[in-house]
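Handout, tutorial session.
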Amino acid sequence: MCLVTAPSTGSRNPRLLTVDRLRELIDDGTVDTVVVAFTDMQGRLQGKRLHAPFFLDEVLGHDTEGCNYLLAVDVEMNTVPGYAISSWERGYGDMVFTLDLDTIRLIPWLPATVMIQCDLTAMDGTPVAESPRTILATQVAKAAEKGWTAHAGTELEFIVFDDTYEAAWNANYRDLTPANQYNVDYSILGTTRVEPLLRDIRNSMYAAGMVVESAKGECNFGQHEIAFRFAEVVQTADNHSVYKNGAKEIAALHGKSLTFMSKFNEREGNSCHIHLSLRGTDGSLVFDDGEGGRTPLYEHFIAGVLATMAEFTLLYAPNVNSYKRFADGSFAPTTVAWGLDNRTCSIRLVGHGAGARLENRLPGGDVNPYLAIAGMLAGGMYGIEHELPLEPEQVGNAYTSGKPTVPRTLQAARDLFHGSAIARATLGDAVVDHYVHAADTELAAFNAAVTDWELRRGFERL
């Protein structure tokens, strides 16, 4: 079976490197380190650093390997029983890191370093179906069969602290000093305080092959967002993963720390709004009818995303902490509803013409972009296939509309995903079972933990 890869669509960023250019940079000593990386279940970059001459001689034409437990561990990197693809009984064998040579990029915040992102295959060349990049590529390939390409943009918020990561760890993440002491939403003065870090991140990501749009302050203390131009969906997810990892590394170089966790404290959480659109493979419009209206295909797509939103919430909110963000009146949605430029809805329609798109406001900053975008594509194409009708738009406050709500706990989302016939039909049993087990692992760890909240309430008074 051949590797499932997304069709090449759109223009390749000219700041990404070709193989020939990479050879030149290695030969003249400009580059001495090649990072090969993939994105794991938790959305983290995993891989290895290769000495550049060795990479040219031994890896470029042959790929490299790593233990398959990397898709079967929890956040703490504990080996977790119960996964079909990796276990003690199966011997924890290797999988192949298959280089995607369209993703070669400089990592300018690290000296003499480039990165190449990878797909994952078994040793016999079979795609690892549970790999997030493969899951998204599979949905992209299905769209291509219908004559469509998918484009997306992700909007990640984060909170910056003046503490280093080491100091934050040693303080058990209590009493940290945010980079701003008040709400700096759209504030130029407030963002100036953090501009040395934000500027470094923006310029570094531009040099790494991304199109940077802007930076702005947000509502929580020390909260900010850097926006990037949309791209083909696999490119967007790749860029998202590099940016998220790189922003943390750059913050550390500045003696600061930042978090993308969905809900750091009781104030505003970190969102990751995802904008998605389809076009024809020839670039033609399929969402806009040419007169500023929605096509039937667009309406079926929206209806499909809404119809699957509750069952697919696990893909949008993968952790226990994700669900702390869902609160009425918080700009984090709680209802399954759509509206025109309505930020109280989980699906917000914006743009027109080539810019017509839907914004999924459900995901938080902890989301895995490959899984979330794959879920939106799978749901939307299900709606097209079954010609689902689009319900009337939500006008006014969706929080008080009485509309059905999304799951409010990881357990509830896990149960809906596990029992979803649509998820199993569109994503496959192996994918569903794998990520249900990941949710079970997260829930077991959380249920075994004794929290600060319990200690404060119960140590003396109970």
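The second record follows below. Compare its token runs with those of the first.
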Amino acid sequence: MLRIGLTGGIGAGKSTVSQMLVDHGAVLIDADSIAREVVAPGQPLLTRLAETFGEQILDDDGGLDRAGLAAAAFVDAEHTEKLNGLMHPAIRDRTAEHFARHADAEIVVHDVPLLVENSMTPAYHLNLLVDVPAEVRLRRLMDSRGMARDDAAARISRQADDDTRRGACDVIIDNSGPVEQTRDTVGQLIADRIRPFAANLAQHRRAPLPRLELIDPADRDWAGEAERVIAKLNYGTEARFPVEHIGSTSVPGLPAKDVVDLQLLVPDLAAAEELAPVLAELGYPGRRLADHLGEDGTEEKWFHANADPGRAVNLHVRVEDSVAARFARAFRDLLRTDDGQRQHYLELKRELIARTHRPAQGLDPDANHAATNTYAEAKEPYFLTMRRRLVPDSFA
């Protein structure tokens, strides 16, 4: 199951986009519907709320009087905490029931208005933001819902700001234009990313490598993307192991292949093997490989890569005190601080890519994979020299 988190500020048109996703075959789990479901007449939570806050929270028909509950629960922090202590577990458990009911679904979309505010994004393979500038949402709320400007502005201000949402989500769907334009955007997203991601996830298969070329870092947010991936890995592995951003994309200002390199550090290879199926379910299938240390030296590791075709990731699962782990960290730190070495490495990368580049590359996944491997192998003599400098004890 590909788990997708969907969010957007009030007035952004999130329900419109969620219906488009359903039209393409996704199963929808709606957080607002669940919040209403758990307090419906006859539900145990409604009884507990009445016992806690009094019968005045019920209307004449025995249903929930939301205004009455708000008046009783938001009088002070203690009462609000009691409300949250009742509501949150009930919503969490009911949500889990919905996910379990659709365990065989290919794609499940969880529509959560406060996905970012409640720090829920790490729980999903992919997070989509229905994005409309706050000023446009303000006008929509006034025009379509008849809200007074101050009321609409107050509601918007209680949610995360636009930049915070954009930084937390993997995909931004611009819904500020005509609905037909949004429909085309969603259709393209389904075809190019979501459906292939779901298929790769089900087959524990990595996505094709991106074209071998150096990208201007000004055109990417590699630090933000690495942060989001690391958060998902930490969530899925219960933060048992440290994860580090390494490689060229971890060096500010350095052009690089559009691949985020990470290393996850484990105490031994047995832990790496045990972790492999967990990482595969998170969207990073892998296999046992070895780092080449030069002079015919090797060091075993597990190597995992992205099932998501929209974000290339190399995840190296290494023993925490291994030579390769120490070198990756030391080399990253050197490039971050040494302008001359950073420039030298960039010139080397440009030269090697020029040797391996072919016009058709990027169109043929097999040819691109071969070119990438050739490029990696061509850097080994340089890396051997740098290892002697940065991890000299490994050659003793």
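Points raised in discussion: The chain is about 50% helix and 15% strand.
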